[in-house]
Amino acid sequence: MKKLLIAAFSLVAFFANAQKLDKGLLWKISGNGLKNPSYIYGTMHIVCDNTLDKKTLKALDDTKQLYLEMDMDDPSLPMKMMSGMMMKDGKTLSTMASAEDLKLIDDYLVQNTGMGIKMMDKFKPSLVGMMVMPKMVDCTIRSVEDALMNVTKEQNEETYGLESLEEQFAVFDAIPYDEQMKELIKSAKEGTEKGKAMFSKMLELYNAKDLNALMDFMNAEENKFYGDNTDVLLDKRNANWIPKIEEAAKKTPTFFGVGAAHLGGDKGVIALLRKKGYKVEAVK
Predict the structure, then answer these.
(1) What are the domain boundaries of the chain?
(2) Which of 60, 79, 119, 273 is the most interior residue, by most CB within 10 Å?
(3) pTM for the full model?
């Protein structure tokens, strides 16, 4: 179930408005009354290699706690996930598409997940589509978040979340289910090859630490569904995180890890922190 949650936000974390940034995933937050700097790191939820470099390990060593988008160590997550995945108001996938399209989706899911549409009939369409994500990667799936949490545990420090599981899943209630269903049908028609090519390109840009090129790529026309819903997927969440980031950083030096695209854009975390008077600079 934890892997499903990671997959559920693997694409969400890469859509943002363009703002030119220096190359880099690790950013230092200082000034505006902070006694000690904190750091924010752009993560990718599905990678082939989640090895952390020396400067990231040093930043983890220089801070006293870890904040991810959500507290992935919460033991109650599996139970909460099931209810969060369900559509509200009794909606079902089987009532939202033609018999032909439902058959197409069923074949797509069986081939790539081993489960048919009946087993997921009440799930939100976007989450159903994201269950295919492991098939998009030709390697053993790892996540940057896991690497960050492992170091934090070794340091006997705590991991916290900038938002709750309920808040994360509410994102997929704010986007109309019918709109999500259209995207799921589109994915089923295209098959996994296009998704594999897109994900391979994302990994390439992420590994190059080129957030500008990554954002340009993900804002392309073929990703219109996500681009049209940036306000829900990114902007509102970024704004909600800023007071929590400020509060944590003022109390103790903190390492923040969030999806890379949350960093960029005029409404991204870096821009919002700078507007609040903080100095945010890439760690070279």
Answers:
(1) 2-282
(2) 273
(3) 0.88
